[in-house]
Amino acid sequence: MEQRIKVQGSLFAKHFSAHLDLVRLADGRISERIRIQHPEAAAVVALTDPDTLVMVRQWRYAVARETLEIPAGKVDPGEAATACARRELTEETGYRAQRMQELFSYYPAIGYSDEVIRIYAAGGLEQQAIADNGDEISGVELIRLDRIFDLIAEGVIQDGKTVIGLALVRERIERGELAADFFA
Predict the structure, then answer these.
(1) Helix 160-174 crosses helix 145-153 at what angle (to 10 degrees)?
(2) Which of 68, 99, 123, 164 is 20 to 30 A from 177 in CA distance terms?
(3) What is the SS3 assignment for 50-75?
(4) pLDDT, tens only, 2-31
(5) What's the CATH number of domain 41-183, 3.40.50.300, 3.90.79.10, 3.40.109.10, 3.60.9.10?
């Protein structure tokens, strides 16, 4: 087990903090570790029917390109992850879900961050209004589930939460765990 000796430096941003820690390793040696404290996030695999997904396009500064992803966002203080998933789905796509089922939770960068992403399946979608996210979302697309893994293989979809969520939903549909009435 590693023991923090001291925090050598910190950076505080609006949605996260990053720290450079001096640590004592299990064998007694001294080393450094970067630790990012990040809020929990929720992501949504939203299906209008068992064969059609709602996805978003958005510019990602860190990779300097537009990506195709499932809707997602940070959980606000005091907000439940399920409420965040519902909110982000509506804000980013204009769809509201009648049904929401948690599929999986994971740490996307476990080596240096405490961020947890909870992935949900959403069904019983009702389009509320066209989402106005010009500063965040550049487009909302309906994509056939049978096309998704071609888009992953082609490198069009490279986002980790999206790949995990899509694989889980496809598996649950194939095993009958997400039946047609979930989407109606």
Answers:
(1) 140
(2) 68
(3) CCEEEEEEEEEHHHCEEEEECCEEEC
(4) 999 999 999 999 889 999 999 999 999 999
(5) 3.90.79.10
